[in-house]
Amino acid sequence: MELFISNLHRAIFPKGNVSRIAASHFSTRSEVANCFVTLGVPINSDQETVRLAFIELVKKYHPDSKSPYANAVKFQEVEDAYRKLQDKFAKDRFNVNEGLGEYGLYYEEKGEVEHPDIEHTAPQHRQYLSYDGLGSGTPFQRFKQYNVHKAAKAVENVTQYRINKLSEENPECKQVMKKESKKKVKDIRTGFGMDRLVEDLIQESISRGEFDNLSGSGKPLKPTTTENNPYVDFVTHKMNQVLIENGFTPTWITLQKEIRESTEELRKRLFKLRETMGPVPLTEKEDHYWQQITTILSDEVKQINGKIDTYNLLVPLLHQQMLHLNIKKESDEALYKGSYKKVQVVEMKNNEEENTRKKKGLHRFLTSIFR
After folding, report:
1. CB–CB of 13/19 below 8 Å?
2. What is the end-to-end Cα distance of the chain in Å, rounded?
3. How far is CA 93 from CA 45, 183, 316, 350, in A?
4. CA dist 312 → 38, 178, 256, 305 (Å)
5. Quick check: helix, strand or coil at residue 13?
6. pLDDT score at 367
7. Of the ranges 102-116, 133-147, 252-266, 347-361, which one carries the lowest mean pLDDT score?
8. Measured distance CA(316)–CA(267) in Å, rounded
9. What's the distance, CA 243 to chain centroid?
10. Which of 265, 272, 287 is nearest to 340 (CA)?
11. DSSP one-letter code for 131
């Protein structure tokens, strides 16, 4: 019997396959251990520890960060290690929970599928199977309507959760909620009756022609969506409208204003300093003074370029991005195009006459010697 079992085991699991499976298993374990070492956390750490370590290393090694340790190769190693560990955690959760049943997050269909006696037919009361059967119109319009429904449902769920939590913590609040619910039902009935009464009165007034003298009579209603951008859904449009009414300004707009003001101020200072010097070419003293000015203003240009980097990361449109300032280019523009201090003509003539007088005196002295 034992001989038969051993032969059967050899037939099912050959020696080469067993060694190959064991080698792959150990190589996978070593790769996982190396991933833990790459992220700088102990082996077999939980998912939250790995996530926090990954965030810290991203801040340290990301090429776009201004960290002195920024390294693209090291960042790629950290990212690969983190993704491998995430796959490992997902597989472990699936193995432990066994897919969490048919409606779980990690459910996988079995090989054998039970066929029902009758073929499944879609419910007749649902016009669409996507988006929970909500909305009407084109798929894009139904997608927008479904987003509005989800947002309203989420707000309702949050409010109901807070109410239930308060009622559980305070029994007196629960009694008050019951009384308010009864009162609310009564108010709804009263309000429904009032709405019907108001609707009847409106219809009577319309039939008598009392609304014909209104300014908007016979005209279509204004559209509820934005006319400028039809691709923005209603919820986003309303959120932007609320932010604008409350005085909110996006960060990239304030940065754009600061960059323009700083650049204009820098150029004004350069042109103002240029007015204190003479025409090109500059004297040795003026040239040395101009070089000192550009060196001092280079620190201010670095600060402006840092703001430009932040602005380029935040601006939503590519054509609105800005280029860095170049202090050499700005100083040359001010030097050659800016106004300069004019030297008086009288002083220049006096200097020329004095130079010619000195040259003539030297010439006379030399001729008198050689005679």
Report:
1. no
2. 141
3. 14, 49, 39, 96
4. 32, 56, 10, 10
5. coil
6. 66
7. 102-116
8. 28
9. 17
10. 272
11. G
CB contact at 8 A, 339 and 274 = yes
Higher pLDDT, 326 or 278: 326
Q: Would you say 334 and 274 are in contact if contact means Cβ atoms under 8 Å apart?
A: yes
DSSP letter (8 states) at residue 130: G
Q: How many CA atoms lie within 13 A of 203 on its CB side?
A: 6
> What token pair was written down for 328?
């050499």
Q: Which residue has the tokens 């090109």?
A: 280
Per-residue tokens: 332: 């040359």
In this predicted structure, the answer to whether residue 111 has a pLDDT above a threshold of 90 is no
Tokens of 223: 């559209």
Q: Dig out the tokens for 283 from the structure.
A: 């004297």
What six digits make up the tokens of 64? 């776009």
**In the chain, which residue ranges form alpha helices assigned H by DSSP?**
2-12, 15-39, 47-61, 72-97, 139-169, 171-208, 234-245, 251-274, 284-314, 327-337, 345-370
Q: How many residues does the chain have?
A: 371
> Average of pLDDT values for 316-320?
89
DSSP secondary structure code for residue 318 in this structure: G
- Cα distance between residue 302 and residue 305, in whole Å: 5
Dihedral class, residue 40 (left if φ above 0, else alpha if ψ from -120 to 50, else beta): left
Backbone dihedral region of 133: left (phi > 0), alpha (psi from -120 to 50 degrees) or beta? left
pLDDT on residue 256: 94
Q: What is the per-residue burial (b if ≥16 Cβ within 10 Å, else e) of 113-138?
A: eeeeeeeeeeeeeeeeeeeeeebeee
Residue that wins the pLDDT comparison between 138 and 371? 138
Phi, psi of 344, rounded to the nearest 5 degrees:
-65, 140
Q: In the Cβ-directed half-sphere of 147, how many Cα atoms lie within 13 Å?
A: 10
Please tell me the distance from the alpha carbon of residue 55 to that of residue 50, in angstroms, as a whole number: 9
SS (H, E, C) 99-110: HHCCCCCCCCCC
Cα dihedral 130, 135, 137, 143 sign: negative
